[in-house]
Amino acid sequence: MSTLIPQSASFWLMILFLGGAAAVATAAALTLRKAPEEGGDADPEEGELRNGNRSAAGRDQRAEARILAQAGFDHPLAVTTFYAVKLAAAAVFAVTGFWFSVMSGLPPSQPFLFNTLAAGVAGGLGFWLPSFVVDKRRAAWRRRIEIAIPDALDFMLVCVEAGQSLDLAAQRVALELEAVHPDLALRFQVLTKSLAAGAERQDAFNHLAQSTENDDLRQFATLVVQSATMGTPVAHSLRVFAADLRDRRVRKVEEKAAVLPTKMSLGTMMFTVPPLLILLLAPSVYRITQLM
Fold it and tell me: Where in this protein does the record put region Disordered (predicted)?
C-alpha cells in the first residue's frame, strides 16, 4: 500500500501541473490577443514612426518583441510563441523533476512535500531557461552590432563625401554591408524603408538607435539631427564622429590590456605556487616521517 501512494500522488500532481500550464497558456494567449496589432509590419517598432500614443500593454509588448528580434526571433508571433515555450518548458521540467524524485527511491520523512519541491525547482528552471537563451543570443547580437558600427560609419562617410545624400548613403551601406555585417545591414534597411515611406529623418534615426539600444548609434542619430538643424556639413560631422569612435575603441582595448596582468597574477599564483611548495617541502616532509 505504501508503494501505491507515491505513484498516485505523482499521477495527480502531473495532472495538476499540466492543467495549470494549459490554463496559464490559455490566459496568456487571450491577453496577448487583446494587445493592439502593429498592422503587419515586419519590424516590431516600425509602426511607432507613423502612430501616436499607445497603451502601456502595447508598449510592453513592443519592448518584448524588440528583445526577441534582437535575439533573432523576429516573427510577428514571437512574443506569444516565447511565452508558450516558457510555459511548456516549465510544465515538462516540473513533471520530469517530480517523476525523477518519485523514482529515485529516497525515503524522506515527507515524500509528497519533497517531490513537490523537486517539481517546483525543476519547473522554475524550465521557465527560466528560454529567457537565458534569449539573453545570450541578444548579447551576441548587440556585440555584433557594436563591432559593425565603425565600418558602417566609414562607408557612409565615403558615400557622403562622394556626393550622395544621407538617405542614399544609408541605402548603400545597407546593401554593401549585408554580406559582412547582416545584423546592422538589416537595421539600415529598416531605416531606408522608413525614410522612403515618408517618416521624418529625426524619427527614423532615433528609431534606429532605439531598436539597437546602442549608445554609439544613439549619438550618431543625435549628430545627424543636429547637423540637419544647424546646417553643418554632414561629412565633416561624420568624419569627426568616426575618428572619435575609433579612438574610444582603442582606449577600451588598452584598458582591457592594462588589467590583463592583474587577472593573470591570480591564476599564476594558484597554479604555480602550490606545485612549487610541494616540490620544495615534499623531500623534507618525507625525511621527517621516516625519522619518526
Answer: 36-57
